[in-house]
Structure formats: C-alpha cells, structure tokens
Amino acid sequence: MTVTRDVTALERQPRAIAIGTFDGVHRGHQAVVAAAAASGLVATAVTFDPHPRVVLGNRVELVTTLERRLELLSRAGAEDVLVVEFTPELMRLEPEEFAERYLRAIGGEAVVAGEDFRFGSRRRGDLALLERLGFGVLEVPEVADVSSSAIRAALAEGDVVAAAALLGRPYELDGTVVTGDQRGGTLGYPTANLALDAELACPRHGIYAGEALDHRAAVSIGTNPHYGGTERRIEPHLLDFEGDLYGRRLVVELWERLRDEAVFDSEQDLIEQIGRDVEQARAAARPA
Predict the structure, then answer these.
(1) In this structure, is residue 153 part of a structural domain?
(2) How many domains in the chain?
(3) Does residue 183 belong to any structural domain of this protein?
(4) How far apart are CA 207 and CA 228, in angstroms?
(5) Distance between CA atoms of residues 159 and 152, nearest Å
C-alpha cells in the first residue's frame, strides 16, 4: 500500500476513492472502504490529518493514532491512502477546487462516502455535487448507532465490550513503552509503562483484561491510588512474557473491564488481588 501526503506521488489511474476522517476505522468506515474495494477500481482512501474539529479549535479525543488508522484502512481494503493536511486554507477551499486538486488529479472516477459527508468552503460540497462534476458516486448507508462519538462514550464508561461491538474489533491502546516506577517487578508482576498521546481517548480508570504481542495482559489504567499517585499511568502486565519493551511501540487490546482501582489494607492484599486479576485475564474471551 502506498501512503503519501503528496497528491503528485500517486499515479493517476482509475480509482474508487473512499473519503472521510475515518477516526477509529469503525464498522461504518470499514463499509465505506469495502465498497471502494468492491468497485473493481483501485481502492484509494483520502483521509485528513489533523482532525478537522481540532483545526476548528475543539478538543477531540481520537480513537486511533494516525499510524494505526493507516494500518486499519489497509486491512479494510485500501490499496493506496492520501493523507490530506487539514488547514484553515483547505477548509476555505471551494469544493469544486478540492475535487479537482485531490480527487480528479489522482484519477478518481468514483467517490464513496457516508451520507453525511461534507467538504469544502461552508461545507457546501457533498456527493450530489461530486455527481454533477462527473464523478460516479456511491453513498454507503450508515451502520446503525455506530459512530466515533458512540465509541468515545463507551470508553468513558469503561465499556470496552460495547466499544468492540462498534469498532468490529477490540479497542486498542497504542503507545510507546517508557520508563516507569518499576514497582510491578518488586511485586512479582512486572509491567510496561505505556505513554499514550495526549489527544487519544483513554477508557475509564480501572483494571482490564486484554492482549498484547500474542500474550494475555492484565492492564492497569489510573493513578495507582494504593501508592497515592496522581498522574495517570497505563501499565500492562503481559502474562508469560520475557523481554525488554523499552522504547517500543506497543498495541494493547482491551477485552474486558475487571474492576475499579482500589486502595488495599496492605501490600500483600494488593499482591493477592493482582494474582486474581491475572487469572481473570488468562480466562478472558476476546470480544467481537
């Protein structure tokens, strides 16, 4: 798959273009990309970075990193991806000019999007306009009740099972392993300290079961209240794993919320509870 931010880097050839922000690449987004892939043309995704609402001055908790979004678009069937930088200048671009500069220029013959897709100055562009400009258009119906906002709401409640149903796969924590307190090793359960980009959505604090690197994981998200912590930490313990993860990108699936964080009467009580968490993680079933 070719991924580029330069429109001239994509060969002009007959393409079906799936277009959207695609935050999360959830089931609705997957349907759009799949429709492009089924067209018989070169399935091409056009997506935007940063998120348009961020450029408008709003805070958005993204469901996926851009890197993961690109991987998931490829998995959904995109053969090429054009990442368009979303700027105030782009927002003011007339939709006809956008269509010529970013769609026609790479050979777009058909455009695939959800029914609420809008683009260009004053959000005047839509699929009907593209049809008038000579593009074939395919409006993909929304998947009922599936949206990035619904996924964020589920995560805020810690309901990773509901989030997985919306995504069509388990929700993932995607970050880099950095040095932490190294307290887990002294308790007999070494953890990785996962640094998550500040703009990414994070589930409600608690203990979760999941998986990373093909190892079951017990994952603590929160402030470690037993030790009086105040900063959020994301600490997966990978069962039966040996190795050095420092500096590596780590993608952790979350399968099930096990419990709230807690303060224990003693460190021994904490260790015993972690043992129970590990056994629950070992027995957990992958959703979706």
Answers:
(1) no
(2) 2
(3) yes
(4) 17
(5) 10
Neighbours of 73 (CB within 10 A): 25
Q: What is the pLDDT of residue 191?
A: 95
In angstroms, the Cα distances linking 262 to 108, 227, 288 are: 55, 10, 29
Task: For the chain, report the end-to-end CA distance as a whole number of angstroms.
Answer: 26
In sequence order, the 6+-apart residues with CB closer than 8 A to the CB of 86 are 48, 49, 50, 51, 52, 55
Say yes or no: 135 and 214 in one domain.
no
Which segments within 167-267 are labelled E, that is strand?
A: 171-178, 193-195, 206-212, 215-222, 233-238, 249-259
Give the residue from 273, 286, 153 showing the smallest Cα distance to 220.
Answer: 273
pLDDT at residue 184 is higher than 80: no
d(CA 196, CA 233): 9
Of all residues in the chain, the percent with pLDDT exceeding 90 is: 87
Residue type at 219?
V
What is the Cα–Cα distance from 9 to 2, expressed in whole angstroms?
9
259 phi/psi in degrees, rounded to 5: -170, 170
Based on the fold, state whether residues 224 and 128 are members of the same structural domain: no
pLDDT digits (tens, 9 = 90+) for 154-167: 999 999 999 999 99
Alpha-carbon gap, residue 166 to 106, rounded angstroms: 32
**210 domain residue, yes or no:** yes
Residue-level pLDDT at 10: 97
Question: Which helix (DSSP H) or strand (DSSP E) does residue 76 occupy?
Answer: helix 66-76
Domain of 101, in residue numbers = 2-140
Q: Count CB-CB contacts under 10 A for residue 95.
A: 19
Residue written as token pair 């992958």: 286
